[in-house]
Amino acid sequence: MTQILDPTDERVPVRRALSQRTGSLNGSVALVDISKPRGDVLMDRLAARLAESLPGVQFRRYRKPTYTKPAPDALRRQIAAENHFVIEALAD
Amino acid sequence: MTLPSFKLQDRREQPRAFPTGRLALLCFVKEDCPTCNLSMPLIEAAYRAFGELVDVWAVGQDAAGNALLVERHQLSAPMLDDSALRVSFAYALEIVPALVLADAQGQELRRLIGFSKPEWQALFTEVAQLSQRPAPTVDWDAYPDWRPGCGSKSVEPGIAERLAAEAEGSPLRARRIEIAPADDEFEFMFDQGLTDGLPVVPPTPERVIRMLAGTRRDPQELVAIVPPNMAPATVEKVAVNAVMAGCKPEYLPVVIAALEAVCTDEFNIHGVMATTWGATPVIVVNGPIRHRIGMNMGVSALGAGNRANATIGRALKLALRNLGGAKPGGVERAALASPAKYTMCFAEWEERSPWEPLHVERGFGASDNVVTVFALEGPRGIADQTSRTARALGGSLGLGLESVWHPQMHFYGDTLLVVCPEHAMTLERERWSKNDLRKRIQEITARPLRDLLADDESGDGIPPRRFGPDGPSEDQLSQLIPKFRGAENIHIAVAGGEAGKFSAIFGGWVSGPTGSIVVSRKIEEV
């Protein structure tokens, strides 16, 4: 991974383009718990609800070691390789 | 585990050092965290119960918030100021409140994260046993069993990286941006709007560190406040933009001096960038540094092909874009602009000039290294392949200059005339000074007012209404008006290839206190 230093005055967050939206959900979906307290509780409920309403979709659970740092490269690669979509429980 | 020692000031600005030689309970809190506020009465209760034998300290993460916490909770326990967050970082805090119980030598005995009633109760019991003091009486029913904490300020995005760099002794403080392996780093920088339309060199920490070797200045020293965003440009930030532009480290002092020069009230870079006219900073470099960093002052001096010329000018423009926020279509509003907006920097060929060089004329020593910045448009040529006398050549250059802005616009401001070596030789033969040349330009361009008025034949020029409702008098119509307000508005430098009787002019913009004033700055000696 390349790391660069921000040449700006840093008043604007770094923007990333969103992936193209497909309009439908199929294949496999990663549910990522970022290790915030009780994030797993939220993910459990979400997984149960989604499994009910989307029986043809496979859900896989992942967990970041800590919410304070980006996911390790290996985990990101694994999530990208094994899934078509990602749902991540961000922050509080 | 031995905890890092530290010294912090309490709210009376008294230093407090850890370890203290006594049992210590360090309570890290921040004001905008509800769980910290929930815990504050317990911290105060601990201080009142154990304070004589145990150092119970609140450690707050921002100065204004600390004062609020003290006031809100009527805190008598010492509140230490860790707004620099160095202690929070050293203690590897991710969440607050965080309570750290340590023995007299600074060994960590226990750590509580967030709020857990059973843990707090156990902590009070433990401290009571260790200190032989009764535990405080607390209405525990008023407290929930559990509450999550909030993120420590020391791990907020941007701050964690800065603290890590400080802890490692790294000179870099700029926000770090990670480019995913699947992303093309050059495309990423285009997508982020960080380029001038051409690819830029990715400013990796390694490249920026190398660039910083080009200056003796501290990386965090402020170079300038860059309009229009009024952004602070540190040496590091200038170095980041210099890397992107393709500079070598030895160019950095020139870029820094140029940025200092344009970010003055006199130069008025905000106006220069914002004008719908195509003005842009034009950098002229004088002094021995021209040779040391390999600048071009000869063949194609105003054009492409030389790294120093190209990248110094580009670094300045990238800094104005990325730090100042002046982007075309945003604050940068030139109707057409010119390729000079990418970069415009050259060196004067002092050795080939019959005159004292630009920087000496402007009050510097011959051996000083100096940048001079002008607010000008792009250059264009003036051909004269046949004049054999200084007078005839001076006349040609004057006529060429008359088209600047608009031929009928006389009494004009700053302009830069770049005299090519062959033209310089013609003038030198008759020992013409720069002032002789200026005088000749003013003489040949002097026109009667009647030829310069805006009228139905040419709608721009000197407006007749300037002379009152009846327009100018007969006497005024016959008055001769030179092209330039004063001879001193004609700035002269020598550069270019030894063959080719083609000089060049850079038209100006609004000159003087209402527009832009030419600024020179000495370049740091390295």
Keywords:
heterodimer, A: 92 residues, alpha/beta, three-stranded parallel beta sheet, 2 helices, 4 strands, B: 526 residues, alpha+beta, Glutaredoxin, five-stranded mixed beta sheet, 17 helices
Model description:
The complex is a heterodimer of chains A (92) and B (526). Chain A has helices at 39-53, 73-82, and strands at 2-5, 28-33, 58-63, 85-89. Chain A is α/β, with parallel strands linked by helices. Chain A has a 3-stranded parallel sheet, with helices on both faces. In chain A, helix 1 (39-53) links the parallel strand 2 (28-33) and strand 3 (58-63). The longest helix of chain A is centred in the middle third of the chain and has 15 residues, at 39-53. The two termini of chain A are 28 Å apart. With 526 residues, chain B is of the alpha+beta class. Among the domains of chain B are: 6-167, Glutaredoxin (3-Layer(aba) Sandwich), CATH 3.40.30.10; 173-343, no CATH class. Chain B has 17 helices and 24 strands. In chain B, the strands form 8 sheets. Chain B has a 5-stranded mixed sheet. A 4-stranded mixed sheet of chain B has the order 16-15-17-24. Chain B has a 4-stranded mixed sheet with strand order 18-23-19-22. In chain B, helix 7 crosses helix 8 (235-245) and helix 14 crosses helix 15. The longest helix of chain B is centred in the first third of the chain and has 17 residues, at 34-50. Chain B is elongated, with a radius of gyration of 33 Å. Chain B starts with 5 loop residues before the first strand and ends with a strand. The model of chain B has no long low-confidence stretch (mean pLDDT 95). At the A-B interface, strand 1 of A face strand 11, strand 12, helix 6, helix 8 and helix 12 of B. Strand 1 of chain A pairs antiparallel with strand 12 of chain B, so a sheet runs across the interface.
